[in-house]
Amino acid sequence: MRTACCPGTYDPVTNGHLDIVARAAKCFDRVIVAVLINPAKQPLFGVEERIGMLRDATASLPDAAGRVEVASFEGLLVDYARRRQVTAIVKGLRAVSDFDYELQMAQMNYRLAGVETMFMTTSPTWSYLSSSLVKDVARHGGDVTGLVPDLVVARLRERTQLPPA
Ligand code: PNS
Predict the structure, then answer these.
(1) pTM for this structure?
(2) Ligand 1 center to residue 56 CA distance, Å?
(3) CATH for 3-127, among 3.30.450.40, 3.40.1180.10, 3.40.50.10490, 3.40.50.620?
């Protein structure tokens, strides 16, 4: 059984994340979407909300039915990955700006525990997209429809007090 782990903060999930999860599901038998619980960060959405949005969004991914699990983890990713018998961490690379830090983390994770990382090139459709930008646009009243799942649009609207469309 080949297992991919797509770790992240997912505050909130975007269509770019979902593209990577869907493509990982084509290459692996199962995908664990692992949401980091990080007490040092102040996310817009609580971990259970983030997990709920991810579960809703991944449930309808084509050809991935029953093969995507959404879970949370604390502490080192490699410890979680080993516990869950992960074959490889799978990450999306949007641009060269992502590369430096992702390379450092991949090399550290390999050194710590021999855990492999595989990178997928983000679809050009989503190469400019990030959770931070989505939140910023939403906070300022911009329209994020089509960038995140519809449920996330609604939750962002509630959380950032946008008027209904
Ligand atoms: O969505 P993000 O914030 O870019 O995800 C970053 C994440 C969760 C993949 C990274 O911060 C992480 O793996 N954190 C867990 C703690 C850890 O293992 N740190 C050492 C990384 S080499």
Answers:
(1) 0.96
(2) 23
(3) 3.40.50.620
Strands, E assignment, the chain: 3-8, 30-36, 68-73, 88-93, 116-121
Nearest by Cα to 4 from 27, 33, 23, 31: 31
Query: Which one of 13, 32, 33, 36 would you pick to mutate in the ligand 1 pocket, going by the greatest count of ligand atoms within 8 A of its CB?
Result: 36
Predicted confidence (pLDDT) per residue in 49-100, tens digit? 999 999 999 998 988 889 999 999 999 999 999 999 999 999 999 988 899 9
For the Cβ of 93 lying below 6 angstroms from any atom of ligand 1, the answer is no
Say whether 17 is catalytic.
Answer: yes
Q: At residue 43, what is the residue type?
A: P
